[in-house]
Design brief:
Largest interface: A-B, 31 and 38 residues
Largest sheet of chain B: 6 strands, mixed
Number of helices of chain A: 15
Distance between the termini of chain B: 39 Å
Strand content of chain A: under 5%
Number of strands of chain B: 24
Largest sheet of chain A: 2 strands, antiparallel
Strand content of chain B: 25-35%
Strand order of the largest sheet of chain A: 1-4
Number of strands of chain A: 4
Oligomer: heterodimer
Order of helices and strands of chain A: HHHHHHHEHEEHHHHEHHH
Chain lengths: 332, 497
């Protein structure tokens, strides 16, 4: 013991820790990483377009909105919860932003901020109910999923709202240099999420509350705040995704984001986060989302119709989770 | 009483990848005997029992039951040889009735359906044989823990077992229930059943067992006749060295009052509670289960609301409404049930020891890893926590080491008032002695310690003073020179008479 506990930390640079974390991360996620690499190699052989810059940026842009949500969903699931309302929040924030520009003639920044506020409000509501009551998050967010979707339909009368504004369009379809804007937001969101989970007290509290809620209470952790934050953050991320998607489609659509919650959950689960809470990493979720993104891109490139893609996606999730299950049982 | 050898296990060896769990263990149980199996956590007791119960197969060695070589390959074989194991965790189905549980998996059948009438009648017969006042048609979930334990025993015996293994059967029973269990054990002895009894509670071993076999690090150390041995001898056999001072205590001069509790009540159960706590003392809280001790501590730690009375710390009245406030005032609570209330089992030793000291090394998003390691290593070292690395998940540690992790976590907050609720429950002897040593050191440094314990020897040997509780209030305070078991028990039951 002594030899280990007396390591001289003075001689260690910060990057030792980072390097060590990466090694551990690769070890823990070996299965999905290998799967991802095999998938990429296979696709680059089968399709000459796959590795082109245009296609890679395209994949990343598609993955981006899913990952905004999935980063927050990782926190929610580590807390032992679930957020089903994110798909509907996408629609709601998109139509509110679009409507304020197209119907009411507000300027783009005001409309975007209002869209964010309305969407995030749903998350705040989820957070309040989940943290102050013992109603299961599944039920709470199932209800708000329906309410937010309904609100989006009521607001638009069921019709898409066309938005003819270059300014607005830039948010989702613009470029900074050669990089699409959604990817820029993605980088920021990933950094923020990783900082929260790996560096802040809040992150440790999330793992603690998710791992053993009662112990967290005894440890003096304010679990209500921790729960509230996760659902608030989830609402905010979904709102951002909604505005980006609306901007890319030149319109706020009440049908946008249908099934988006399931894609986010799939990414989180593929990334090795435990549905029973307490364990998981943002890094895993990123890989999970990339696998899903690359998979659908590859199937598109190979000309496989989108109906089959659902089946393939489902099978991949089953295999990945099964491999994980085998691995855990062997360790036990 | 016949004294024929019922079970002989000879030269048992068993390895797992990386560890030799049993290195040559012998055990002999006679019919009509209670044979205690003693050893620290990890000594090999459970491995030996699992081999006997058919869960593990042995690498080398032989087992004889009733003079016949017994080749036990699985649980079925084990049952066929008349072995029943009652595990530490109850394995009953709470929604099913007592009768259904007793006959689970071998229900009497009639015309292709379960014969409910016969099952109930048979179960009734078994329950009556032990004078148990339990209706076989009640759902098990509605019974008390003690009654459930009895059902478990009846179920084990319904296999017509000749050898009954009890793994920590009293860990969730009250004293009265323990007495009842001992009564049943005596009856079983008379009928010639051989019982292997595992417990950490020395007083029980002396009360109930005929012989004791001690294991240490997977090795057979020796067998003693209980009547001819002593706690000291058994403890030194278990730990391999003589623990001269099992209870370490240097009493300090009485100094300032740090905490005063005045007329405290929670409006429900606790009432009229008054006591002072001095710096550098260990104040014991004794009482029966349900006396209100844990409830009182939850109030002091801000987990439950205080309705009446006041708390004075350092001469100033304070309000404690949350654990956070309590911690700011320098109060820490090590809860009773470490798995439920304290540990983050899937997380590492480091995570668990530092979770309350995050403020010392995280500023915003800047984590001082060096400081983090220092804090965690300091308490791992101080508490002598035996873990493969700071990154090991606490779920893989022994009970004693888990408890040390929890105590270490609270020490990292540098408390002035440390409340320990059953600090040594389910902890092996070596770790117990270490925990006592740490408590003594802390008291010497001026930390005021409140210790709830249901183990009277622990209360008597570690406390400066003892408050005895009964029925939600303090029924008496005893000074260390007035401490003896009768005195304490008298106060602990004073309201029930």
């Amino acid at each position: 013991m002594a030899d280990k506990s007396n390591v001289n930390y003075k001689n260690r640079k910060w990057y030792h820790h980072t390097f060590q974390s990466i090694v551990v991360f690769v070890k823990e996620n070996m299965g999905i990483l290998i799967g991802f690499l095999v998938l990429c190699i296979l696709l680059s052989v089968l399709s000459p377009v796959f590795l082109s810059k245009a296609n890679i940026l395209n994949v990343l842009r598609q993955v981006a909105t899913n990952l905004y949500i999935a980063c927050a969903m990782t926190m929610v699931i580590i807390l032992g919860g679930i957020d089903l309302s994110v798909g509907s929040i996408i629609a709601l924030s998109g139509v509110v932003t679009g409507g304020m520009i197209a119907f009411d003639g507000y300027s783009m920044p005001v409309a975007v901020i209002c869209g964010l506020i309305v969407g995030t409000f749903v998350g705040v509501f989820n957070g309040l109910v989940v943290s102050k009551t013992t109603i299961p998050p599944f039920i709470v967010t199932l209800a708000t999923m329906n309410i937010a979707r309904g609100a989006a339909y009521v607001y638009t009368g069921g019709q898409p709202i066309r938005v003819m504004s270059d300014e607005f369009n830039f948010i989702g379809a613009g470029y900074l240099g050669e990089i699409p804007m959604p990817i820029i937001y993605l980088v920021v969101i990933i950094i923020v999420s990783i900082l929260i989970m790996n560096k802040s007290k809040l992150g440790r509290h999330i793992y603690a509350v998710g791992g053993n809620r009662q112990a967290a209470v005894f440890a003096g952790i304010r679990i209500q705040r921790v729960l509230f934050f996760a659902y608030f953050f989830s609402g905010l991320m979904a709102s951002i995704a909604g505005i980006v998607l609306a901007s890319r489609m030149f319109s706020g659509q009440p049908t946008a984001g249908q099934g988006a919650e399931m894609d986010a959950i799939a990414a989180v689960v593929l990334g090795g986060t435990s549905m029973s809470g307490g364990l998981g990493k943002i890094g895993g979720t990123i890989i999970g989302a990339l696998v899903i993104g690359v998979l659908s891109n590859g199937l598109n490139l190979l000309g496989i119709n989108s109906f089959w893609q659902y089946i393939v996606k489902g099978v991949v999730i089953l295999i990945a989770v099964y491999v994980d299950f085998i691995k855990k049982n062997r360790n036990a | 009483m016949s004294r024929t050898s019922l079970l002989t296990m000879k030269g048992i060896k068993k390895s797992f990848p990386g560890v030799q769990a049993l290195k040559n263990v012998d055990l002999e149980v006679r019919s009509g005997e209670v044979h205690a199996l003693l050893g620290e956590n990890g000594a090999g007791k459970s491995t030996l029992i699992k081999i006997l119960g058919g869960i593990y197969s042995l690498d080398e060695g032989e087992i004889q039951i009733g003079g016949q070589a017994a080749d036990i390959r699985d649980v079925h074989d084990s049952q066929a040889f008349g072995v029943s194991v009652i595990h530490q965790e109850l394995v009953l189905v709470p929604e099913m009735t007592v009768a259904e549980n007793i006959y689970l998996g071998r229900e009497p059948m009639k015309a292709g359906a379960v014969d409910q009438t016969r099952m109930k009648a048979e179960a009734s017969k078994l329950l009556d044989a032990f004078e148990l006042d339990i209706d076989p048609a009640t759902a098990v979930g509605r019974l008390t823990i003690a009654q459930q334990q009895m059902v478990e025993i009846v179920r084990a015996l319904s296999f017509h077992s000749r050898i009954l293994v009890m793994d920590e059967p009293t860990s969730s029973l009250s004293d009265k229930e323990v007495e009842f269990l001992f009564g049943i054990i005596r009856k079983l002895k008379e009928s010639g059943v051989g019982i292997i009894y595992i417990s950490h509670r020395m007083s029980e071993l002396f009360a109930v067992s005929d012989r004791v076999t001690v294991l240490r690090d997977g090795e057979y150390i020796g067998t003693r006749i209980t009547a001819d041995t002593s706690t000291d001898e058994l403890v030194s056999m278990m730990v391999g060295r003589k623990l001269d001072n099992y209870y370490v205590r240097t009493y300090n001069e009485k100094s300032d009052v740090i905490l005063e509790v005045r007329n405290l009540g929670d409006g429900k159960y606790l009432r009229n509670i008054n006591f002072n706590l001095y710096k550098g003392e260990i104040l014991g809280f004794a009482g029966l289960v349900g006396a209100g001790r844990s409830e009182l501590m939850k109030c002091l730690f801000g987990l439950d609301p205080i309705v009446h009375g006041e708390i004075v710390i350092d001469g100033a009245a304070v309000q404690i409404k949350s654990p956070e406030q309590a911690m700011k005032l320098g109060i820490s609570l090590v809860p009773e049930d470490r798995k439920k209330e304290a540990l983050f089992l899937v997380q590492s030793v480091r995570f668990n020891t530092t979770i309350k000291a995050l403020g010392q090394f995280i500023k915003g998003i800047f984590v001082n890893r060096e400081k983090e390691s220092q804090i965690s290593d300091r308490y791992v070292h101080l508490m002598s926590i035996k873990a493969a690395s700071p990154y090991q998940a606490v779920v893989n540690l022994s009970g004693g080491n888990q408890q040390k992790v929890v105590i270490g976590r609270w020490l990292a907050t540098e408390p002035r008032i440390l409340i320990l609720d059953e600090p040594t429950r389910g902890v092996d002897v070596g770790a117990k002695a270490e925990i006592y040593g740490i408590m003594n050191d802390l008291a010497s440094q001026g930390v005021a310690i409140i210790m709830i314990s249901s183990e009277l020897p622990e209360i008597i040997n570690m406390s400066d003073r003892v408050n005895v509780m009964c029925g939600g209030t303090i029924t008496g305070t005893l000074d260390k020179n007035e401490l003896d078991q009768e005195h304490i028990m008298h106060l602990a039951i004073s309201h029930n008479e």
